[in-house]
């Protein structure tokens, strides 16, 4: 036999009187009032929460062993079972707490080969929730409590919506109208932006405002904002283009100056070469010193070097001018591409906004129509008829039950509330 060591163990002499006292103590320990006591014959379902306590009377030792390893809180899982240590998954859906307690005792005795069967106490600590749907102010999931009726359950969800139908429809209309006002203002802003983009693409200095936008209350403010933005963008673009233009003028001036320097150096080179040739001729006849010949050749070589440097600098300046032309073309292309992308994004936002605006207008019309229906209720002829239906699980299958305000609600029930106009 496997021994389970626990912190609580009651030891005593196995006398008849003491045995009786210990048995009574065990029963007292395992006793407890469960929520299920208010629902005789209640069968467990998924999401029910259980509190389990287990103890064992050991006849031979005259002691009580407390199975604290197993005692604790459990929840019936989606599979419909409860996972108990040493026993494993135990089917729980459709069973009572007494049946679960009996199964735990039998399972432990069988698992460990115990002489005395452990006693288990299974209490229902929390019922599975109920659900409200339909004409309820706040539909959703709510906790179950004993003695819950349909009327009490509706109070958890704030009552039925038909009770204040007129006010609700008015709120719906106001909310939809508020959304429509915001969307209309946004639409006007996007349309004015589109007109500004069209003006920039066409190279215009002014924005053409269509009659549709001229009628808007905020038309002047929108136009002033877009014109200020267009002016700022235009100034920025002009500044960048002017900077490139100034750079090209400066480079062109440098090229021209280098060209004049090249002409001067070319003439100097011709004179230096002529002087060098004359000195060489005289040196061959013995009329000039060798040092003068070397000096003439050095002077001609220096002029050639300066001329080469000048040509290189002129070539670099011309390449910089070409680069500035490319930068100008890139700047203009990027500007056009940016305008085209902004136009595409604006059109997309306008389409999305139009869909939202249509939805808000439809909601407004629906709220007006429903409000009219509610206001036309004649106390002498028509009234609002509220009907309740409970959808309850019956052996794994949903079952609909017609109910009234005083019908008892069970854990896991779905309460559907519907309302309609009816003749008195």
TrEMBL record:
It comes from Rhizobium jaguaris. Residues 40-124 form the Polysaccharide export protein N-terminal domain. Keywords: Plasmid, Signal. Gene3D superfamilies: wza like domain. InterPro entries: HH_AprE-like, Poly_export, Poly_export_N. Residues 182-361 form the AprE-like long alpha-helical hairpin domain. GO terms for molecular function: polysaccharide transmembrane transporter activity. This is Sugar ABC transporter substrate-binding protein. Pfam families: HH_AprE, Poly_export.
